[in-house]
Amino acid sequence: MKAVLVRRLSSVDQELGDGVLVTDNEADFLGVDVDLVVEAAGHGAVQAHGVNVLQSGRDLIVVSVGAFCDQSLYEAVWAAAEKAQRRIIVPSAAVAGLDRIAAGAQGRLDSVTLTTRKPVAAWRGTFAEEVVNLDTLTEATEVFKGTAREASRTFPESVNVSAALSLAGVGLDETIVRVMVDPDLDRNTHQIEAVGQFGKVSIQVENTPSKKNPKTGYIVAMSVLKVIKGNASPLVIGI
Ligand SMILES: NC(=O)C1=CN([C@@H]2O[C@H](COP(=O)(O)OP(=O)(O)OC[C@H]3O[C@@H](n4cnc5c(N)ncnc54)[C@H](O)[C@@H]3O)[C@@H](O)[C@H]2O)C=CC1
Ligand SMILES: O=C([O-])CC(=O)C(=O)O
């Protein structure tokens, strides 16, 4: 048996088949015998269910990792995971190189920066609309520069990568983030630079936007799938 926790049953328009409980009730959801829960719903969902999922004895894959800009939430899920001896798993999702930066963080890390650039369509309904007119923009324009903690608060729906990178490297208050709206792009692009005792890494990823939600891309679901398959495979690669 598997289960999907939704906010409104009326919003479920797909037939998920036998063996899948679709529910809006957390207790019923947690009553289903699974070992792993995937959060792919937003900061509010991590806030509402993260601790309970871990306390109930499941590992938790968190995609909306920017939720951890709330330090008290981060500490609460960490404590719940430790007590239940379960894990909070942050997949690479929309970026690459978290494995390498986390390895580099075993020694001295001097700086980690992220520049996120996305096409205009990705920024509709976000804070970017308060900074620029998306309808008349003709060239790449910076709409935010600051720490990953501020970036995660400012763009809860589209710069979660900054928080994932922070957890891998120098933390939410030391990771520097720039956010650009770029009318010339057709892919969601993240440029990562990290420097430290290990050397230097410079990574650019270009994600094909999802048709349903251009803020994000197909690679995110693929990354979660890779983690789930890795959990049941004799070979674990790219950690
Ligand atoms: N770590 C990373 O690299 C990335 C993280 N994300 C984050 O992952 C999350 C999901 O992304 P998308 O699928 O693109 O977003 P989406 O907005 O297309 O879909 C989210 C779905 O979750 C539902 N939802 C919201 N709150 C819920 C709750 N409390 N309980 C149950 N369902 C709830 C919504 O109704 C919606 O159907 C977002 O927070 C997004 O910002 C997305 C891309 C990359
Ligand atoms: O998919 C992406 O490009 C990144 C994203 O939305 C996020 O980090 O929240």
Description of the structure:
There is one protein chain. This protein is an alpha/beta fold. It folds into two domains: 91 residues, 3-Layer(aba) Sandwich (Rossmann fold), CATH 3.40.50; 118 residues, Dihydrodipicolinate Reductase, domain 2 (2-Layer Sandwich), CATH 3.30.360. The chain contains eight helices and ten strands. A five-stranded mixed sheet has the order 7-8-6-9-10. The protein has a three-stranded parallel sheet with strand order 3-4-5. Helix 6 packs antiparallel against helix 7. It is globular, with a radius of gyration of 18 Å. The two termini are 28 Å apart. The mean pLDDT is 96. The protein binds 1,4-dihydronicotinamide adenine dinucleotide and oxaloacetate ion. GO terms for molecular function: aspartate dehydrogenase [NAD(P)+] activity; NAD binding; NADP binding; oxidoreductase activity, acting on the CH-NH2 group of donors, NAD or NADP as acceptor. Specifically catalyzes the NAD or NADP-dependent dehydrogenation of L-aspartate to iminoaspartate.
